[in-house]
Amino acid sequence: MTRLCLKLAGRLASSALVTGFLWSATAISASAEDISADQIIKALAPAPLTRSLTAPAGPAVSDSDRAFIEGLRHRTRSLTLDEGDHVTELAKTSNKIDLEIYFDFNSAVLASKAEPQLKQLGDALRSAQLENSVIVLSGHTDAKGNAAYNQLLSERRAEAVKQYLVGKLQLSGDNLTTAGYGFRELKNKANPYAAENRRVQIVNLSSANQAQK
Fold this sequence. Notes:
- The N and C termini lie far apart (85 Å).
- The protein has a domain at 68-213: CATH 3.30.1330.60.
- Helix 2 crosses helix 5 (115-125).
- It is built from seven helices and four strands; from the N terminus they run H-H-H-H-E-H-E-H-E-E-H.
- It has a four-stranded mixed β-sheet, with helices on both faces.
- The longest helix has 30 residues, at 2-31.
- It has 213 residues and is α+β, with helices and mostly antiparallel strands.
- The chain is globular and about 40 Å long.
C-alpha cells in the first residue's frame, strides 16, 4: 500500500511539472507584443530631408531603378524571381521592417492571432507618411522542405497579407506589391530552421527615391 501511494505521488508530481511547463510556455508566448503602427511608421518613413555641404551623399538611385520602382504601382501579380532579386538589391538602401505574421500550419491561411499585427500594419500604411509609398510585402520561409514548395508558399502568404489589407482593412492595393523568396533570403543563416526566418518583410522602396531628393 505504501509503495502504491509513493508511485501515485510520483506520477502526480510529474504531471504537475509538465503542466507547469506548458503554462509557462503559453504565458511567454501570450506576453509577446505586436509591433505598433508608430513603430512601423518610424521604421519605414524616410528621415526628414536635410541639406548640408559637408554631409556625404547616399548611393544614387539610377533612372532605371526609379522607373522600376514607379512601375510597381498598380501591380496585380507577384514579382518574378528576377524582379524579387532586384527588390533585394534596392532594399539595401530602403527602409524596411520584419513582422511576425501567423499562418495556419503549412498553409497560406492567416491565423486569427495575426489580425492585431495586421491592423497595426494597416494603420501605419494608411498614415500620411506612407500612404503614397511603393510598398513590397515579401514572404519568407525557413529552410524546411524543398525550394519549389517554399517559394510558392512564401508567394501565397505575401499575397494573403495584401488581400487582408485590401479586403478587410480597405487599403488601396495600388501601391502594394508582393514577392516570395522561399528560403533564398534567410535572416538567420547560421540556423536555417530558426523561427525568425519565417517572416513577412515590409519594404518601402520609395524611401530610396526620397533619400536622393
